[in-house]
Amino acid sequence: MKAKMTVNRAFTVSEIDSRIYGSFLEHLGRAVYGGIYEPGHKNADNKGFRNDVKALVKELKTSFIRYPGGNFVSGYNWEDGIGPVKNRPKRLDLAWSTIETNEVGLHEIMDWSEEVNAEINMAINLGSRGIDAARNIVEYCNHPSGTYWSDLRRTNGAKEPFKIKTWCLGNEMDGPWQIGAKTAEEYGRLAAESAKVMKLVDPSIELVVCGSSFIKMPTFAEWEATVLEHTYEHIDYLSLHSYYGNQKNDIKNYLAMSVGMDRFIKSVTAICDYIKAKKHSKKTINLSFDEWNIWYHSHEKDSKNEPWQKAPPILEDIYNFEDALLLGCLLITLLKNCDRVKIACLAQLVNVIAPIMTETGGSAWRQTTFFPFKQAATYGHGTVLRHNLDVAVYDSEEYSDVPLIESVVIHNENDNEITVFAVNRSEEENIEFLLTLQDFVVESVIEFSEICGFDKKQTNTVNSAPVEPKDSEKSSVDGNILKAILKPLSWNMIRVKVCGE
Q: Which pTM value belongs to this model?
């Protein structure tokens, strides 16, 4: 079977914003306590943060981390996480029925993020709180000095402002599970007024307003339109959230779920542009897909948790080979929509539906999903090229005309490289992939790595990581045509050297 793809140097989608390779740390389960932070661990630094976890986060090339929630943020008082740790209050976290000790707060997470080379995307509480707390936290974090909150930051050890650029205006405010859930009108008004005061404190910040919690919410589309009616001229991004799972054990339908993600993105883009037209605005609202991942393995186990524990194991999905393939498809879909998706956060980073897992007191290790994300975040920089793809399609239970290959082509002009990410969805067929690179002078294949040949349910463990990329020699260049064999059920990364102009 063959697949033919054509790209042209002159026909582009957009430059990729590095924040598309973001992740998410919520005060949930063992993401923070027992994940990135474990005082007394043999690998802990003098602040209690695990160096082995920091090394894996840096290896993953995570650029951007949404913090501290998530559902958690809608009941969180940010002031609980500043000042001497010994004086910080312990609180009931009503979002996850656990105890929050507040050992890790603003200063700790800012120091940690600097060490792992990631930017913090701060979420504010618009559930149980509102405008006053919103302006105060921006003043505390970003104002240089000479005011109550900025001088308190300096007293607490941070002379220079944190300069947090991107802020989320609450979380999933349409969800009945959310503390302080609101109607679109209620939230739209509160978000608009909060945005105004936050930008009065620091006009340089960018703001993300909440879209629907997921596409099947009964108010989807109407929610987005109403919220944007109130907030359009005050915010910069609209959020999307979506999780995926193979509960029916149907791999054809499972690997087609990126088609649903693509439709979701295009639907929300259309809503943003409708409000733009309605308001006769010159401003374009882009998208922040700030929660996306695979989540279904841990549901039954989590239903048995006892309440009011400190950092119990919650949402600890152990991912398999087919999960890595879908995650690759989802990454490719985000990249293909990089003209509007500027921010994306894999939810989450450590232990909680995460590519990185830890043992309490023990080792840290890489899940199967770690590797597609790492390769994309390492080599997926530059400009996405528009493509024409000729390949066989199939129908699944939920989706029709699903191409057997999900692929994206990226031109990194700075390094004179073309990077191809591709997933072969076929269970049986090798696919001969022929990519014509018009207006490029192709020199050679730098690297062809693949993840393939595993049982669909194969997992990695703390002691063994069989599911990881391996080098392949099944590629070549002929003039400006790249030829590669994509094996059945495979994630593939091909890097090609091209001549500069």
A: 0.97
